[in-house]
Design goal:
Layout (H helix, E strand, L loop, with lengths): L7 E6 L4 E3 L2 H9 L10 E5 L7 E5 H12 L6 H12 L1 E5 L5 E3 L2 H7 L3 H6 L1 E7 L3 E6 H15 L16
Antiparallel strand pairs: 1-7, 2-6, 3-4, 3-5, 4-8, 7-8
């Protein structure tokens, strides 16, 4: 995939659970939607798995993942787990004319956004991770990011040292 999801964006979530997809992410979603010819584009929001965020994939990327799942032997625990968490616990999403989506109830539940927080207004963080992007509740994202960096990298270390294992 030539296009990649990059960057970190904080977006307001309104009382109706609407949130604007960052403009750079919209371009990648459009490029990865084979049916897009202007107007509304689509992507897949996955809320399965044991995590505090939802993952979002372009239609093309999700088709590649589905093909990999199909290649696993039917009925195996690995295939059933992936089918449940990547296919069953996923929704096709369509951006409205303003580039927004309505965060679905299952997605809001995964993020930990309560009805009271929606009424008062809350914020979501969109984090690009190459072939997908994540949507987090903003305060959860900030806490997780700080904790992860503390564990992975000593202060002052070169972050590219984490790539040494790749052999590239």
């Amino acid at each position: 995939m030539a296009e990649a999801f990059r960057g970190e964006y904080n977006q307001k979530v309104d009382a109706k659970a609407r949130v604007s997809i960052p403009a750079p992410f919209r371009r990648v979603i459009e490029a990865g939607d084979p049916k897009f010819s202007g107007g509304r584009s689509s992507f897949v929001l996955v809320y399965g798995g044991d995590r505090s965020y939802v993952e979002c994939y372009t239609i093309s990327e999700m088709e590649r993942i589905e093909e990999r799942i199909r290649s696993l032997p039917m009925g195996t625990p690995k295939r059933r787990y992936l089918e449940r968490n990547m296919i069953t616990l996923a929704l096709n999403m369509e951006l409205d004319e303003d580039g927004r989506i309505v965060l679905p109830p299952k997605g809001r539940e995964k993020l930990g956004i309560s009805p009271d927080e929606l009424k008062g207004g809350t914020e979501a963080t969109f984090a690009g991770t190459l072939n997908k992007f994540q949507i987090w509740k903003a305060d959860t994202y900030a806490a997780e990011l700080a904790a992860e960096e503390e564990v992975l990298l000593p202060p002052g270390a070169d972050m590219l040292s984490l790539l040494e294992e790749t052999g590239l």
